[in-house]
Specification:
15 strands, 8 helices, globular, disordered N terminus, binds manganese (II) ion, alpha+beta, binds 2,5-anhydro-1,6-di-O-phosphono-D-glucitol
Length: 344
């Protein structure tokens, strides 16, 4: 018997592996009974910008777009040319679409108010994650969070529209520019992954309904910072070694997270003496991955509380991040709760 791939399968899903992202988004719109289609369009806008950034990324060695841009961002980090290019591409796509009223970007000092009378969504974005890996052909990514604004559409943007806890995200995702390019996202109804087929210019569903393994044998942390960790983190990492876990650390959060999501594992970027609040940013790095983690059955904490419960206080706020397989995150949290910082 021939199987029609677009008929609902046994679990009631009206899609299957090979479905294009566009069709999938359309089919999933029924998850939101009163949806006007704007969120769907916004996801398509992001996918289009991702394709463009993917093209730039693939040409990086050829087109003189590698290396430093010559400026630092608000966090004092040296901007790479591709950071700047990716930022421009995503902001352009989000501005043109008309669904977005404000953008928070790692590469912008303050909120971009699009002064768009009809946009009801706020997007927080790390346009290019893992910048230090651009010039050496190692996986990099894009991370995005989508919120519905709190104040009425058409009125001026307020702080409360921007400073929403991660639990308020209506969608979140990441793009991984790796051995293949993938877009992984959630709208709060599970997590789905799409692989880019460059010759067709399409993302195709390749990883439906991703479920993170409850446990794993990989730990990911920058061990070069060991002397700056709290005693509890040191002891936890020692226990990982005693349990025979493997160390894997790419240095691109998206790539490290993605591997652990599929294979099982834990990623930690703890507070250090140098970065007492950790290094990663709450609004456009931790929150999106925390929502994806939870939607896939994994967990994310700052060591004391769920990442998604943190009330942001500033745009570029940092947070310690412990994220990955639920059993591993629970074990780590128990061991490092109320950890203190001591340089040895
Ligand atoms: P970005 O390139 O957006 O600034 O992010 C870099 C982040 C993250 O991707 C990665 O996990 C982490 O920085 C690596 O930091 P260390 O080099 O301190 O390990
Ligand atoms: Mn980043
Ligand atoms: Mn970045």
């Amino acid at each position: 018997m021939k199987i029609n791939p677009y008929q609902p399968d046994q679990s009631g899903m009206a899609y299957s592996v090979g479905t294009t992202l566009d069709r999938f988004i359309k089919l999933k719109q029924s998850d939101f009974p009163f949806a006007s289609g704007e969120l769907s369009q916004l996801l398509r806008d992001i996918a289009l910008a991702a394709k463009i950034v993917n093209r730039e990324t693939n040409r990086a060695g050829l087109a003189n777009i590698g290396g430093a841009f010559g400026q630092t961002n608000i966090q004092g980090e040296e901007q790479q040319k591709l950071d700047v290019i990716a930022n421009i591409r995503f902001i352009r796509a989000l501005s043109k679409g008309g669904e977005v009223c404000a953008i928070v970007s790692e590469e912008e000092d303050s909120v971009i108010d699009l002064q768009n009378g009809s946009g009801k969504y706020v997007v927080a974005i790390d346009p290019l994650d893992g910048s230090s890996n651009i010039d050496v052909n190692i996986s990099i990514g894009t991370i995005f969070s989508i919120y519905r604004r709190k104040t009425p559409v058409g009125s001026p943007i307020q702080l409360e529209d921007i400073m929403q806890p991660g639990s308020e995200q209506v969608a979140a995702g990441y793009v991984l520019y790796g051995s293949s390019t993938m877009l992984v996202y959630t709208t709060g109804f599970g997590v789905n992954g799409f692989t880019y087929e460059a010759s067709l210019g399409e993302f195709f569903l390749s990883h439906p309904d991703i479920q993170a393994p409850k446990d794993g044998k990989i730990y990911s942390i920058n061990e070069g910072s060991e002397l700056e960790w709290s005693q509890e983190i040191k002891e936890y990492i020692l226990s990982c070694k005693q349990q025979g876990y493997s160390a894997r650390y790419i240095g691109s959060l998206v790539a490290d997270f993605h591997r652990n999501l599929l294979k099982g594992g834990i990623y930690l970027y703890p507070a250090t003496v140098k970065n007492p609040s950790g290094k990663l940013r709450l609004l456009y790095e931790a929150n999106a991955l925390a929502l994806i983690a939870e939607q896939a059955g994994a967990q994310a904490t700052d060591g004391n509380q769920r990442i998604l419960d943190i009330q942001p206080e500033s745009l570029h706020q940092r947070t310690p991040l412990i994220i990955g397989s639920s059993r591993m995150v629970q074990e780590a949290s128990t061991k490092i709760k109320s950890s203190t910082l001591q340089k040895s």
